[in-house]
Amino acid sequence: GPRAAGAAVRAFLRRRAGVRPERGQQTAAAVVDWFPYATTGGVPNAYLHAGHLFVAGTPCRVSTILGSCVSVALFDPVAQVGGLNHFLLPQGPENTAPSARFGTIAVPWLIDALVAAGAQRRALQAKVFGGACVLRAFRTTAGNLGTKNVQVAKAILQAEGIPIVAEDVDGERGRKLIFQTHDGAAWVRSL
């Protein structure tokens, strides 16, 4: 089930990293979490918090709330493995411990976690969500935080050769996202 898949992903990422995190330091293994809260039609639901990622090799619906943050949803339609991240900033300051709060870390960690859970890298498809400019004061500013988050996500996916098959980005309103890990279906509602 999802908990076993999560444990396998965490073990793989610990081995791949080859280092033990210091106290308070985040690793990909530490942010692949399972937050079950109900089932709908026999499919478990999970809520994804900002700065985390979620991967499942069994059917699951993952929801999150986005403003200027971005979520990249990845899925392998053949292996029926999918996952979602939720990052807040395009990148962290220099000399900052790696964290899924940053797009430059969260997107590669999500790719690695999906491959560890059984997805084939060449079969991965992406959907990108979020990146709104929700603060009125910044709406006239070119290159607002939401736009930068979207740009980072798209650049990494392009560099990794992962096609973006759908997106709902930018704008002035937040979004509620629900993503199904097993088939890549996604629903977005403006807030």
Question: Can you tell me about this structure?
Answer:
This protein is α+β, with helices and mostly antiparallel strands and 191 residues long. It has helices at 2-17, 28-31, 103-116, 145-159, and strands at 36-40, 43-47, 52-56, 61-66, 70-76, 81-86, 125-130, 164-169, 175-180, 186-190. A five-stranded mixed sheet has the order 1-2-4-9-10, with no helix packed on it. A five-stranded mixed sheet has the order 3-6-5-7-8. The chain is globular, with a radius of gyration of 16 Å. The termini are far apart. The model is unreliable at 1-6 and 15-34 (pLDDT under 50).
The overall strand count is 10
The best one-word shape is globular
Number of helices: 4
N-to-C series of helices and strands: HHEEEEEEHEHEEE
Largest sheet: 5 strands, mixed
> How much of the residues is beta strand, in percent?
25-35%
Mean pLDDT: 83
Spans where pLDDT lies below 50 across 5 or more residues: 1-6, 15-34
Structural class determined from secondary elements? alpha+beta
Please give the order of strands in the largest beta sheet: 1-2-4-9-10
* Proportion in helices: 25-40%
How far apart the termini lie comes to 32 Å
What's the alpha carbon Rg, rounded to whole Å?
Answer: 16 Å
